[in-house]
């Protein structure tokens, strides 16, 4: 497989070969005239000799980009990559690497940005890393058990969560009542401070200027106290609104 040319060069192979070898054995016999004659006879025996013969040996030449896994195989099944594969890749085709997940390129040298596509599965944030990625959550959330979803942070036991529900109707009514009382006190103060007017003052306030001044100072104290309460309630209202937006 993937062999571009093949040949069969010959090689010498030695082996032992058996053959019948004739032997000439001399002996004496009686000839004519009662004379002794010397002659011979032929006998045969099995002998062995070394013979050499030409034996064809297979030879293969691999196609460009392929090589043999070892010298004992004829097929060329190992691909050759001129640039070494990086990041755990393996040479699968001549000049091309097979990359593990998270890497791409001819030599597996380029990181795959999993966060650029929508296949990462993160519910909120995706953070790309070398050869991989991981999910993260925004403030106020924690990563779920599947390492992809996000769930709201659970407040510790004993935390007052009533302020997160927004201002209640009772708080709004209280603020409205306090504003009305402040407006009424301001109107009374203007009446008290009006010089030389015949004003409708409370029964316990005398008509002399000292009594009027004392009464006006008391009204100012009450206004300051109510104003502080309104400011405190407004701050609570703003805090509730911020939590509701988050």
Automatic annotation (TrEMBL):
One of its GO terms (cellular component) is extracellular region. Keywords: Calcium, Coiled coil, Disulfide bond, EGF-like domain, Repeat, Signal. PROSITE patterns: ASX_HYDROXYL (PS00010), EGF_1 (PS00022), EGF_2 (PS01186), EGF_3 (PS50026), EGF_CA (PS01187), EMI (PS51041). Residues 77-109 form the EGF-like domain. It comes from the Eukaryota. InterPro entries: Dev_Signal_Modulators (IPR050969), EGF (IPR000742), EGF-like_Ca-bd_dom (IPR001881), EGF-type_Asp/Asn_hydroxyl_site (IPR000152), EGF_Ca-bd_CS (IPR018097), EGF_extracell (IPR013111), EMI_domain (IPR011489), NOTCH1_EGF-like (IPR049883). Disulfide bonds join 81-91, 99-108. One of its GO terms (molecular function) is signaling receptor binding. Residues 1-78 form the EMI domain. Residues 152-174 are annotated as: Disordered. PANTHER family: EGF-LIKE-DOMAIN, MULTIPLE 7, 8, EPIDERMAL GROWTH FACTOR-LIKE PROTEIN 7. This is EGFL7 protein. The gene is Egfl7.
């Amino acid at each position: 497989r993937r062999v571009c040319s093949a040949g069969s060069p010959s090689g010498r192979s030695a082996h032992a070969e058996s053959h019948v070898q004739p032997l000439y054995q001399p002996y004496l016999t009686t000839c004519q005239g009662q004379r002794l004659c010397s002659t011979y006879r032929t006998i045969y025996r099995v002998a062995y000799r070394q013979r050499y013969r030409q034996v064809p040996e297979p030879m293969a030449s691999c196609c460009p980009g392929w090589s043999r896994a070892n010298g004992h195989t004829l097929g060329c099944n190992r691909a050759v990559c001129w640039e070494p594969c990086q990041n755990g890749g393996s040479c699968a085709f001549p000049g091309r690497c097979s990359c593990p997940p998270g890497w791409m390129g001819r030599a597996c040298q380029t990181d795959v940005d999993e966060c650029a596509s929508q296949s990462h599965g993160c519910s909120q944030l995706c953070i790309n890393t070398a050869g991989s990625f991981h999910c993260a959550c925004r403030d106020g959330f924690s990563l779920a058990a599947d390492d992809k979803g996000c769930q709201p942070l659970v407040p510790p036991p004993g935390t007052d969560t009533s302020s997160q529900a927004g201002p209640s109707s009772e708080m709004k009514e209280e603020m409205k009542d306090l504003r009305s009382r402040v407006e009424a006190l301001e109107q009374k103060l203007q009446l008290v401070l009006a010089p030389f007017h015949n004003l409708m003052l409370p029964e316990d306030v005398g008509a002399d200027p000292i009594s009027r001044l004392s009464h006006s100072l008391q009204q100012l104290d009450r206004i300051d106290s109510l104003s502080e309460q309104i400011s405190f309630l407004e701050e609570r209202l703003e805090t509730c609104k911020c939590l509701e937006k988050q």
